[in-house]
Amino acid sequence: MIITARNPDMPAIPAELFTPETADSLEMERISREHHSAAYDGWIRLRKNKGALVCLDVLALLTLFALIAPIISPYTYYQTDYMAKLKPPSAAHWLGTDLFGRDLWTRMWYGTRISLLIGLCAAAINIFIGVLYGAISALMGGVVDAVMQRTIEVLVGVPSLILVILFMMALPPGIWTIILALSVTGWVQMARLVRAQILRMKGMEFVLAARLLGTGTWTMIRRHLIPNTVGVIIIQVMFAIPSAIFTEAFLSFIGIGLAEPQASLGVLINNGYSVLRSSPYMLVYPAVTIVLLMVCFSIVGDGLRDAFDPRMKG
Amino acid sequence: MAGALLEVNGLSRYFTVGKRKTLKAVDGVSMRIYRGETLGLVGESGCGKSTLGRTVIGLYEPTAGTVRFDGMPVSPKRGSSLALRMQMIFQDPYTSLNPRMKISDILAEGIDNHRLVRSKAERSKRIAELLESVGLSEEHANRYPHEFSGGQRQRICIARALSVRPDFIIADEPISSLDVSIQAQVINLMRDLQDEMGLTYLFIAHDMSVVRCISNRIGVMYLGSLVELAESEALFAKPTHPYTQALLSAIPIPDPSEERGRHRIMLSGAVRSPIDMPPGCRFASRCQARTKLCDEREPELRELAPGHFCACHQSNCI
Amino acid sequence: MAGIRADVEASPGTVFKDVINAPVLSVKDMSVSIKTDNGIVRAVRGVSFSLSQGKTLAIVGESGSGKTMTCKGIIGLLPPGGVIDNGTVTLCGLDVTRAHEKTMRQVRGFNVSMIFQDPLTSLNPTTPIGRQIEEMMVLHRPDMNESARKARVFEMLDLVGISNPAERIRQYPHQFSGGMRQRVMIAIALTLSPKLLIADEPTTALDVTIQAQILELMNDIQRKTNTAIVIITHNLGVVASVADHVAVMYGGRIIEEGGVENIFYSRKHPYTQGLLDSVPKINRAKERLFSIPGSPPDLVNPPEGCPFAARCGSRMRVCGSYVPPIMEFGGGHSAACWLYDKRATAPPSAVSATPMLS
Prior knowledge:
The structure holds three protein chains of three kinds. Chain A has one domain (39-69, 95-308): MetI-like fold. Chain A has twelve helices and one strand; from the N terminus they run βαααααααααααα. The model of chain A has no long low-confidence stretch (mean pLDDT 83). Chain A is mainly alpha-helical. By secondary structure, chain C is α/β, with parallel strands linked by helices. Chain C has a domain at 1-52 and 59-109 and 231-237 and 246-358: Rossmann fold, CATH 3.40.50.300. In chain C, the strands form two sheets. Chain C has an eight-stranded mixed sheet with strand order 6-7-8-3-9-10-12-11, with helices on both faces. Chain C has a four-stranded antiparallel sheet with strand order 2-1-4-5. Chain C is globular, with a radius of gyration of 21 Å. Residues 1-20 and 352-358 of chain C have low confidence and may be disordered. At the A-B interface, helix 8 and helix 9 of A face strand 6, helix 4 and helix 6 of B. Strand 1 of chain A pairs antiparallel with strand 11 of chain C.
């Protein structure tokens, strides 16, 4: 038998290496990649998305200011000073003052805080109702599902703005009324998404296997369905928060939202709009903030979707 | 053979598609699976073999017919101890494991549901045992499914099925999405576990040669019904139904000289749609031995030789 | 060892012929890497082979062995993040690694075409299949008029065995069965008479009885048109029924290459051995299969030496750290394995001693 090596000029290899070696059975099953959870993998992917990271930082900064600035400021958001009306920015009032001489810097961050609070609370209620409704609808199926879906369709049929405005008029004005009003219809989208995702999940083989192992309905929801729906939920939340903030701003702007001296970004924009000609900066600050909030939430939401979209295949 | 562990009688499962159209995925299948044996079920895609498996185990409610396991009727309501004795392994190891759960929790799912262990220590001991029984090690318990290869995942699925100590396992194409060298691992593992634990298998696959190396008896399905059922030796020695004959002759053999000298039965004609099927033999549209009778009456599964059943008008005693 | 000697004696003729006929495809030391979220996958690591007209090369390997990426590299259709790092691919005298995308588009029509595993996703669902076959000519052959194109469509449908073409050309892909769709794909791929046809798992999605028909068709077409075919598959039965040459890939490398008889009857590499032994045989009763333990290597961190070393039963200490050289056994048969080195103490005969069939 003639055997020739195609590339005979190999590096010198010690002859003792040419002796048999037993293969290690555990070595064969070794996983060479580093061990990390799916969440950590997602975090790594998110870290690579520079835009989302910048936006995440901006959001963190805005939140931080909203929490701290009103506390350390020497003024309160409702403290009027008729001697210093409509002052432009100065050392005493960093962003100037409004029509009643209230410090705009303090009001701006206080307003941001209220807007964020409304956005977060409305989103939280939306998640709660939406996930529950969607999950029940998908899991029960049959008649229950049909009735619940028709109900949603009726709700979608009524223009949500009208519903919200009706609510605002019927109840005493205040933050909680707004949050309640925003939650009346806000959960519908979430419910639909969750239902679709769970329906898809129900046919998947790991759920069938769990059924065969006798997993009960609640355990099934908690252990299998919710964790695999979290991605969809988080992304929906990231779009629901800015949408709630925006609706609140709109309501306050047209004058049926929060009332003075309460501040929210919508109230501030409303105030700024009334003195647009003389002091345009009063409109600019809250407007810029609200735009930043909207844009950053959307970009972070997109980034999260790309990073955490439930990948069934590794 | 001892008594039948599983008895399937006239089992049908129809699906409604569109407006008042019925897809007869499984249509009047009767068979028995004996304790400790492996029944292989082969057929092409869409012949209803997976639906049959899922209906037998109670994931689908049967349209007609009964399934009796160990003498007791199987109902689609899960959770009873009877239900735990039947488990299933699925085709796609990628969608069979919850990507958000650790391997240890996946394996312990059935154990936790039924409180089969008393302490945490016992639980992790059982998990280690299960992992070991499928050739993996304890250190894999804390990892997530996406870190494993397809073959490893399928072995985890097997370990999960074994966690509740079942008697009967339905394996629905367990190896068709795996690589050749990995397929052999899984088949050997399944056979070792069968010898060790006295398991009974219903092994569903589309690959005749795979089915042959694991099955005692083989059933051939075509468009929702069994067309031939026999001991595997008998089936390969004397395939009787024209479809079985064609199927056997079509399998490519990994041997070039044998492959060159081979005569193939080439089927012509189109496969019938399982939606609103006309009367008569299901295979008639592609059959070379077709007669008038085949178009008029559907052949019944007849016992041609002891243990060798065939549903064809043309085949007589062997 | 008699079989090998016979191969060596027969070889000069075949080798000589290969030299005269310039190969349709010649790949030299090609490497492909793909950037993914988990790191850079070294999908193909220095692969060389060539193929002459009228021959069929089967590339066999498990998923992740780099067989699909090799072919996608050849026709310049690597996925996003994929690049050819190294080596040359000469297709009908043109180095495609350096060719412009515009040239490649021409090359993909005239010199090489590809068919895929799933014919349904490769066909446009909203266009009748006659038009889809014609499209290739509209794009690449402006000299053909409509009647010439129509004639060619009929000719192609006849070639791939689709009867009643006049009616069939007006139908849409969903009106065809899986096997018929794959026939249409082959017709489209061969319309411009390419020199090379690359078929990526062409029968994997099909039923066994249909698979047999498609394989028969491919053999038949090759006899008629003398096209060179590269077929990627994991099914050794398919290899045995269509291939002239076989390249076995593992871990991004070709670990054994040779004529189909070489590979099936006098294989050298322990992996090829294990692969062939682990296939269930239709003519054998219920029995224990040979199985290769372990899993294929992760090509994000490819092993330093032989990719198969970790799973190899005949492993030596050298295997884990040095890449084995390619050993020639004559007649175009070669394997990359240290067992055939002069210094090896383990007898290489252990590998091919077990006959495949009893």
